[in-house]
Amino acid sequence: MPVLVMKFGGTSVANIDRIRRAAKRVGVEVAKGYDVIVIVSAMSGKTNELVNWVGEISPLYDAREYDAVVSSGENVTAGLMALTLQEMDVPARSWQGWQVPLKTNSSHSSARIEDIPPENITAKFTEGMRVAVVAGFQGISPEGRITTLGRGGSDTTAVAFAAAFNAERCDIYTDVDGVYTTDPRIASKARKLDRIAFEEMLELASLGAKVLQTRSVELAMRYNVKLRVLSSFEEQSDEAGTLVCAEEEIMESNVVSGIAYSRDEAKMTLVSVADRPGIAAAIFGPLSEAGINVDMIVQNISEEGRTDMTFSCPTDQVKRAEKALLAAKDAGQINYHDLIADTDVAKVSAVGIGMRSQSGVAAKMFKTLSDEGVNIKVIATSEIKISVLIDRKYMELAVQALHDAFELDKSA
Ligand code: ADP
Ligand code: ASP
Ligand code: MG
Predict the structure, then answer these.
(1) Is residue 386 part of a domain?
(2) Which of 207, 224, 257, 335 could disulfide-link to 352, CB 3.0 to 4.6 Å?
(3) Residue 88 lies in a domain
(4) How sure is the predictor about 237, in pLDDT bands with cuts at 50, 70 and 90?
């Protein structure tokens, strides 16, 4: 029988009623003749609670124990979903990551999926089981420890299963009815897109649009998984939601197709470092070894052989970054006068494959922000995106102003 993957995010399984509603959706697909793999998230708020507990006990925690704790929310919903389906007379059972087994590498808290042998689940389907409910976000390392795939990782579990089982489609059920031109929660004029290209979705996700985890989009692109985002709160037709697909499958699109933002950015400045060959390597080498995801980098003009080096990284990595830089300083590898962490910043980005062929997007973006009196602290560009770092208090204003300036409420 054809296989369908259906993933339900935290708000879609937030309580027993919602689990029942999601199970009904699954029942509809089973009735159509699909063998269904359901990927579930933890109930909304649960993972945050678990993460906070870990942080309270141990600020620089052992990542293996962090994973043991934060993966547990998904175990609960997987069991509850399987029970709900059984109550509806749908043959179903739950699977934790290690039981599948979903094999990952050993990068705890941001592990990458290495293999999903389909045999165990396929054997059950052959015996008449119709739904495999799999706990999202978790796997098992070569050392036999539980791993997690990074926040939002259930999306990636879903796409990886769709690829491993050659599923007809991977449906991501969430609390919005598709991918929008920007987060509909902060811009009321945001418009739902019927289709979005993999490359654009990849940029939007990596720049903060948390509707899909970045890695899930990468996998969908690589394995050509038919990926759809839709609401678990509304009755859905086969055409509902947003299809994430190849560029060629999209007839027309705006130059800028979306605006993304990320609140969780910090700007770190090393004040007065020696401006000599190898200094960037001496700074960013230890940061990379400490697992810091450095994003934007600027080096100021040098004066009397010394310069300031500024970079951005996720807010929750600031402490680790400080520790790594201090260790490098103590070891005599680098020398700086001061290290300033500014955690009151946010990143706002414009994304669109149309930028490849049309110039003037950056100029328009900077003019729009300047008209709103928003100061730009750092700029980064690539072929299809422009990002700026600004004071966090202007983030919403900037997103709305850019959405207006690029007329994203109107389709191409
Ligand atoms: P789930 O719990 O289902 O995984 P998430 O909270 O991870 O859901 O992702 C859905 C949320 O993503 C939406 O509620 C919305 O606020 C946010 N979001 C951010 N950018 C976008 C966008 N461009 N389109 C749709 N939703 C977006
Ligand atoms: N529960 C995990 C999180 O909140 C994984 C997910 O929902 O995708 O990050
Ligand atoms: Mg999510």
Answers:
(1) yes
(2) 257
(3) yes
(4) confident
